[in-house]
Each structure stands twice: as structure tokens, then as C-alpha cells.
Amino acid sequence: MLKSLKEQFDKDEAEYEKKALDQANSSSSAAPSSAAAPSSSAAAPSSSSAAPSSSAPSSSSSSSSSSSSSSSSSASSVPPAEPPPPSYGELVYAGSVSHSMTGKDAGGYTASFDGVPINCLRTFHRISTLIGVKIRDVFSGPGACHYFAITTEGLLYAWGRNDRGQLGLGHTLNVYTPTIVPKLPPISSASAGRSHSLLIAEDGTVYSAGDNKSYQCGSQKSSDMITTFSVVTVGEKKSAQFPFLAKSIGAGIDFSVAVSKDGQLFTCGSKQFGQCGNGTTGEYIVTAGKIGYGTLEQFTLVPSTAALRFSVVSAGNSHGAAVTEDGMAYTWGLGFYGRLGHGVPADELVPKPIKVFESERMRVKSVTCGSRSTYFISRFNDNLYFCGILTSSKEATMVPRYFNDLQGWRMRSVSSGTAHTIVAAERSVITWGSGGDGELAHGTELKSSAKPKVVESLDGLHALKVAGGVGASLVILDTFSDHPQAEKARALIASGAIPTYVPPAENKSAATTEGKQKAGEEIVAASGKRKAELAAAPVVNKKAKKSAKK
To answer: How far is CA 126 from the centre of its chain?
Structure first.
């Protein structure tokens, strides 16, 4: 299926380019079309860890040869230029829309249940309150049940689970309608951890909110929860603090990572698995039989990388990854299932370069951490590499390997939730993994897929950016530009092929007295039997918690 779609894509692009060249050659001089897509002749690597072929795509060579003859051409002989690449679009969503229950057992209602019954969108939907809003970036995380979208004006929309104030709205109510976070400057980037969040303003200032028990917000405040986004400060003395400026950030379960504006690597939060990268877990004895771990109370420079300069960073649940300005990838933290890509399942207490990417031709331009995996997009042909594991039923990939199931596809964006992955590649959105909450967006018939599968409802459309969370997938679709793909998207929307989800107008939380009472009524009425089953099997719950932590 993927191969045939790819072949058709390349065929269409080749025909388009041929028509453009024929039109140009029929006049006195020629100029190439700027819309040429990569030809399938750009070969993928023959082995799982080998670099792709260095031969350039045929469309590139034809462009080069044509451009030299175009200098004497008149304006009237030049084919119409393609519209510029779109930089914003409309957000669509698939997955759980019951934020207090996302990622939890369908029958296991607990005291955190906020009264909104379980509901899953199993195909991509527009969100009624975001229709017409120009979104340029979207964020969630492998351990997150909350979401952020940034508009072209830098406004930040937030919604989802908010039990620790991670939405930064000043309260702990779950938010079902995307809401603009007030009193913030224009925002350029964000990251969502399990219960805390990080933002970068356009001037580089970092903000944080949410759970701060392990100082993962980078705040030295005595409070273990911050419900309003606050400026993150650093400094050797508490009396002489200054705003922390960054260009890339990542939020894990109980730690955070960042690349400062000058390219240095910083971390804060729990050291338990070495995720702070400073060479120690800080292990100590709390009481007999109980062990504690050290923390970094503020963003602190990772000493072993002081001489390096990084461009981008990402955080999994308990591991980190970063890419240097010259494309070398480093990983550290929890190493179980080979997610660090070093060939062994050992934890790494300091950032370690991945040998697979040492060759200049194997360098990468971006990295994305899943809960138990790491994805890399190469500089050469935008190929996808992977290490770790997506579901426990699969064999772990201990070193990064070329993702053969997507051979020949150019990756634009990749994100991973707890047990699923979503990518934007050329004119398709592709998902795979577990999709019990509908996050794969393949409808009611397919709830899991071991192999990558094109999301048919969005096939042929241009996806600018994707994000995956716990039981959720988010995509920014080009619907505003003059590109043919945007015209197709508008036609699908007009026909009702992409439905609209209307979220509850009221924010919900079991933290209120009324909420607790309603939650109690629901528990008794809907899940008494299931609660008894869960209580009778405590070992299963402990394993689930341990698995989630990993």
C-alpha cells in the first residue's frame, strides 16, 4: 500500500516536471518548475544501518542543467511559479477527548474522573473553536495528556488534562475547549511533559508551569506545583537570578532539557536514571529500605558537553536526546529497550554520541523522543531512523536503523505518543502502533497496526506538522494556501469528509467538591464491578505503573 502510493506520488511529480520542461523547451529558452519533488531514483540505504546513496535526485540534476540556460529567457516564457510553502494551517485531532480518563483502563474510573464520559475520535476531526485559526505549530508529548497550539501571531492555545496546573491557566481544572493562555508574550515553541510544561517566547525567554516536585519546572520555588506560567531564571545565587534564554526545550516525566540561545545543553529535575546528564543519579538512603535520588533545582549546564554547540533537543519520559550544529546525535538517561541507540540497554549518566551517526553522510537534522524510543530524521533525503521499542510485544532495536517500511519517503515531521507514532511525509500522514483511543485515525475497524499505514482520510493533503500524546494525534493541515493540496483539503471539509468535534463548553475537575460527588456517583453506577476486579489484582496495577514509568 505505502509502496504503491509512493510510486504514484513519484509518477505524478515526474509527469508534472516533464510538462513544465516541455513547456519551457518549446519557447526560446527554459526555466525549471520549483515544484519538483524527490524522484524515487534517490535510493534508500540497502542495509538497515547504512547511509542512503549519495546520488542526487533526478529532479535536482534537471533543475541544475535548466537553470544555466534560463538567464536569457524572457519573463513571458517562464512557467508560473509554485506558491511558497505554507507555514500555517488548521489543526485536526484524533484520539481521546475525555482528558481525566485518557490512557486509563476504560472501566477503571477513579477519584480523578471529572464527570466527562469516555469518548474517542477515531478519525481526524476539526475542533470547532479552532476553525479558521491559523496554527503554525502544535505540541504534546509521549507522557502528556495536554496540548498546545501556537498561532501565527504567537498566541498560545492550551487544553487537556490539568491536574497539576500544567496548562498555566491559574487553576487545576481539566480544559476541554482550547483556550488562549493570557498574559504571555508571543510564543515560539512549547513542550509538554507528563504533568509540567515549558514554553519559549520569541525573545528566547523560557516559561514553565505544572508539577515541580522534582524541580522539573526549573523553578526553585518552595511550591511543588506552579499553576501560572512563570519566567524561568538561573544564576549561581538566588539573590542574583536572570531569565534563562533558550532556542529548544524538552519536558519529560520529572526532568527538563534545553538548548540555550548560545547552543549549550542544560538540564534540571530528577537525576534518577541519569536524565540530567551530569554523571550521577544522586542516590541516597531516605530510610531503611527506601532510596531517594538527587535533583537539579534550576537549569544547569551539562559539564561534559560544555565545548559542544547544539541546535535541537528532545525529552522522552526518562531519557534525553540532542543534535549538535554539525548533525551529531547524543543521548543519555534511561537505556532500557535500547532507546539510547548505543547497542546496550544500560543507562547513560552523561550525553553519549551515537556511533551510527559519526559519518558525515549519516548526520541528522532533528530528533524526537518517544516514551521508550527515539526517532531521527537525516540530513540526507529526510530519511527516518529509529531505536528502542514502540510496544513491548516487539523486539527492541538497540542501535538506530533506517526505517525500511518508509523507504523512499521524505519525512517532514515525526512524533511519538506512549505506544504510537505519527509522521508527516510528502502528501500523506502515516501512523502505526497501538491505537485503543483512536489515535491512529483509521476508524473503528483498525485499533492497532504493526506496520506504518497511510491515514486515508488525509491522503493527498499537505501536513505541516504532527504531534503525538497519550492516546492522541494532532496534525496541522494546509487549508489556507493556494497549493492544490490545500484546495483538496477545503473540498473535503466542505463535503463533510473531515467532521467537526464540538468540545464541552465547561471545564471539569474532580478536585472540586461537586466534581468529587459526581465522580463518586459515576464510579458506583458505571464501574463498581471493574473496581472490584482491579482491587483483586493489585500486582497487575503495579506492573502497569512500572511499565509507564519506563
So the answer is: 19
Q: Which cell is 385 given?
A: 531512523
Residues 402/416, Cβ–Cβ less than 8 Å: no
- Residues contacting residue 216 through CB under 8 Å, at least 6 positions apart: 193, 196, 251, 252, 253, 254, 255, 256, 268, 269, 270
Helix, strand and coil in the chain, % to nearest 5: 20, 35, 45
Nearest to 120 by CA among 381, 421, 378, 447: 447
CA angle 234, 236, 239 (to 5 degrees): 80
Give CA separation, 164 vs 82, 96, 102, 168, 211, in Å.
Answer: 47, 19, 15, 9, 5
Cβ–Cβ < 8 Å for 157, 174: no
118-152: pLDDT as tens digits: 899 999 999 999 999 999 999 999 999 999 999 99
Q: Which residue has the cell 463535503?
A: 495
Using the structure block, give the residue that is written with the C-alpha cell 540561545: 261
Query: Which three cell numbers, joined as nine digits, stand for 398?
Result: 538497540
HEC assignment per residue over 72-118: CCCHHHCCCCCCCCCCCEEEEEEEECCCCCCCCCCCCCCCCCCCCCC
Q: Which among 265, 266, 258 is positioned nearest to 308, based on CA atoms?
A: 265
What's the pLDDT score for residue 473? 98
Contact between residue 534 and residue 108 where contact means Cβ atoms under 8 Å apart: yes
Q: Taking a C-beta distance cutoff of 8 angstroms, is the pair 265, 247 a contact?
A: no
The C-alpha angle with vertex 274 and arms to 273 and 278, in degrees rounded to 5, equals: 160
237-to-73, 220, 222, 223, 495 alpha-carbon distances in Å: 65, 11, 16, 19, 61
For residue 360, give the amino acid letter. E
From 102-111, 162-171, 265-274, 518-527, the region with the lowest mean pLDDT: 518-527
Those residues with Cβ within 8 angstroms of residue 459's Cβ, 6 or more apart along the chain or in another chain: 5, 427, 428, 429
Q: How far apart are CA 282 and CA 181, in angstroms?
A: 36
Q: Using alpha carbons, list the distances in angstroms from residue 385 to 253, 464, 491.
A: 24, 20, 35
What is the average pLDDT across 157-161?
A: 98
Task: Give the span between the Cα atoms of 233 and 244, in whole angstroms.
Answer: 5
Which residue is associated with the grid cell 524527490? 38
Q: Rg (Cα) of the chain, in Å, rounded?
A: 24
Q: Answer for the pair 420, 413: CB distance below 8 angstroms, yes or no.
A: no
Is the pTM higher than 0.85? The answer reads no
Three-state SS letters, 252-309: CCCEEEEEECCCCEEEEEECCCCCCCCCCCCCEEEECCEEECCEEEEEEECHHHCCCC
The dihedrals phi and psi of 311, each to the nearest 5 degrees, come to: -115, -35
Max Cα distance, the chain (Å): 88
Instruction: Give the whole-angstrom CA distance, residue 38 versus residue 349.
Output: 40
Grid look-up 496534525 returns 475
Across all residues in the chain, what is the average pLDDT?
83
CA dist., res. 434 & res. 453, Å (int): 12
